[in-house]
Structures are given as structure tokens and as C-alpha cells.
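The instructor's notes for this session suggest beginning with a concrete chain rather than abstract definitions. Hand out the sequence below and ask the class to guess, before any prediction is shown, which regions might be ordered.
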Amino acid sequence: MSDSTPAAPVVLDIWCELQCPDCHRALTDVQALRARYGDRLDIRFRHFPLEKHKHAYAAAQAAEEAAAQGKDWPYIEAVLARTADLGRTGEPLLVEVAESLGLDAEEFDTALIDGRHMLIVDADQAEGKAIGVTGTPTYVIGGELLDGGSSQEGLRERIEAIADRLLAEQG
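After discussion, reveal the predicted structure:
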């Protein structure tokens, strides 16, 4: 038997919300991490809608519908690029972004009305609260919680250092 089983990717959970200006600014770091690590880093978007953002909960549900239709990250990135627009226009923007990505916009409307993704969003938020997430974005990698809500400064470098260490430990 060969011992050539590929190592499991390192997991980076990002507790985020799609109307958050800090998450909007963090998008470039997330894209850089994906480019640097590829499949060796499993970046998981976790929902943490904040009450102060009126459309954050609907946006989280819409992101789950995009995932159900196979385009989670393209949708997340497209909405994060337009956080200010989301604040002004709300749910129509969520459907517009879905249409622009070739997703079933009618199904998005239905999902937002019937609440089929609420349990996933609620579970993410509850887990985030349980581990100490208080704002967005917050990163969790290698058991370390890194708060990006106060400052993004140096966070990507810290995440890279942890990811490099964890990958090296895998051999």
C-alpha cells in the first residue's frame, strides 16, 4: 500500500455577512488566500448576520440558495462587492445578482419567501456566538479566532502563517 493519500485541506472558517463594509474590504484578502493555497485551504463562508444591517439575514439566505444552485462563492463575491447597494435596495439586489450569474431568480424569490435556508443561517450564527464571534469578519483557523471587525491590518499574514504551519505539520 502506498502512503500517497493527499492531506486534508486546512480549514478556514470566515464568519461574515454580506452587508458588512468590513467583510467587503476583507474580500481581497480572501481572494488572495484562495489564489495562494488553492485546494490546500478549505475556505468556508459562515453566516453571522448583524442586526444593524437590515438586509443581512435575507442575504445570508440568498447565499445559501446560490450554494444550492452551485454558485456559492461567485454569488458571495458579487454581493460583497455591492454592500452599499444592498443597504440601499435590499432584496431586489439579491435577485438581480442571482440573475446576472445565470441562477434561477424565481427560485431565489421563493427561497426568500419560504425561508428554506433559515435553519442553516441560524445554526451558523449560533455556532459563531458559542465560540466567541461578536462581529464580522471573524476568522477561525487552527483553533485560533482572529477578529477582523476592528482591523484587517496584518490578518492575512497571520492567517497565512497559521495555514503554512498547519500544512507543514501535515507533511
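Then share the key points. The chain has a mean pLDDT of 91. The beta strands are 10-16, 41-47, 138-141, 144-147.
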